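Lab manual, section 2.4: Encoding a predicted structure.

Procedure: take the sequence of the chain (223 residues), apply the prediction step described in section 2.3, and record the output as structure tokens. A sample record is shown.
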Amino acid sequence: MNSSDNDASQPQPRVLVIDDDEIARAFLTEILRDEFEVLTARSAKTGLQMARQSVPDVVLLDYKIPGMDGHEALAEIRRAPELADTPIIFVTADGRDELEVHSIELGAVDFVTKPVHAKILITRLKSHIEIKQRQDRLRRLALIDGLTGIPNRRQFDETLDREWRRTTRDGGWLSLTMIDIDYFKQFNDTYGHSAGDDCLKSVAEQIVGCLQRPADLAARFGG
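Recorded output:
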């Protein structure tokens, strides 16, 4: 398989456009759709619902939208744990310097004034998505147990907190199972730590093989 075939197999980055102006939404969709999967919403409330259902790689947010201003919308998006690290770019006709500075201070990664230059916007989007992907890769490495290759205690804690919040918000059940290996110290003492490491890897593989749903998580809690 050549590199072009491999690139074609990769899903398009997902961009969520939140703008109450129908013409602006249509224009952004038109200039972005060849390189991105584009979702659109005309209000912050609808945009937040869409973002929770289909987490975007980046959000393009107008400053003046129905129900709240862009800074309030940014804060609402940031409150959702699954969206806390999603890059947010303001795209607005209000080009005041103080508004741009305050937007960046509040957590926006960029500020683009209308009318939008298509090539510049696409370049900025790609840059912010690439930065986010690198950060995600580093973060994933920090959340993996080096021996077994499954999530570590830190990822377990973060996932439990996120799923607890989701269950509290949406209702439903949350199940948790703690598994221990009996007589593991004796096994180590008898066969050596190398064999003990192989045993832990094997047990982790067996547990991971039992997972059935995308949200299921097997993690090494400690020990």
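Check your result against the sample. The chain has a mean pLDDT of 91.
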